[in-house]
Amino acid sequence: MSLLEDRKTGWPDAATIIVNWNTRELLRNCLTSLEQSKSDRLSQIVVVDNASSDGSAAMVRAEFPGVTLIQPGRNTGYAAGNNLGIQAVHEPYILLLNPDTEVTAGAIDRLARFLDDHPRCAVVAPQLFSPGGAVQRSCRGFPEPAALLAELTGIAQIWPSLSGYRMAGWNHDTERPVDQPMGSALMTRREAIDEAGLMDEQFPLFFNEVDWIYRIKKRGWEIWFTPTARILHHVGGSTRQIPLRSAWLSHTGLHAFYRKHYRSRLRPALYRVVIAAVYLHAAVVVALRGARQLVLRLRSAIS
Known about the structure:
CATH superfamily of the largest domain: Spore Coat Polysaccharide Biosynthesis Protein SpsA, Chain A
Number of helices: 11
CATH topology of the largest domain: Spore Coat Polysaccharide Biosynthesis Protein SpsA, Chain A
CATH class of the largest domain: Alpha Beta
Largest sheet: 9 strands, mixed
Radius of gyration: 20 Å
CATH architecture of the largest domain: Alpha-Beta Complex
Number of domains: 2
Helix content: 40-55%
């Protein structure tokens, strides 16, 4: 029997990596869902704990002794944490999960079978849904200048046909190739990782998976989305702890992505316009979030 035939009959060839920072209760639910999924393909679960102060690591040791726990001793960031996990496993398929996710029954095996059946697919993303059941729009196009400017200026909200960045015309209900799925849940093929390299650690929190997938796709690999595998996503388990900083880092991550992949391709004037739009949008988002936090604090103080 060939290795491929073994895989299709339940060969355990997938590892899961979860990078955690101060999300103990969400992490517990995530690990419990992995245990309850009873996947035939899952052979190893790795948690990389980025110096959490909420007892996450102690919880993993006490309640999930079969999980491999990596503690770098400091907050290395999301990209470096995933790199540590990837280097610690040997399986040909690697499922990157955020701790604010919960896998549903059969999801891991369906993702693995998708990679079995699509040998040029390097990354496959599941359908993400909210606790209330709503499907999350978790895939985007790469941020080409026209699409990105339409998004940052609000034009895409007025004319949705111009919203190629957020793929507004697609309801995430059909199987299709995509550019960049959200990094909350991605099953990847080690062969493609070996070819394209690990995550770039200059993107510690945001745009690391975008840069990674961009590099993988540039090498001729395919990126797919399938609604046949579904994963619950609570959204922002770690980032909601630092709402203003995370908003700013999201935009600086976009700037770093543009500097790496677009600066040499664009006319200098267009590049400056795009980056100016990025930081103007960042200032607006941070100001609005800051105002909201202030209102909430004042309400709390008054009550």
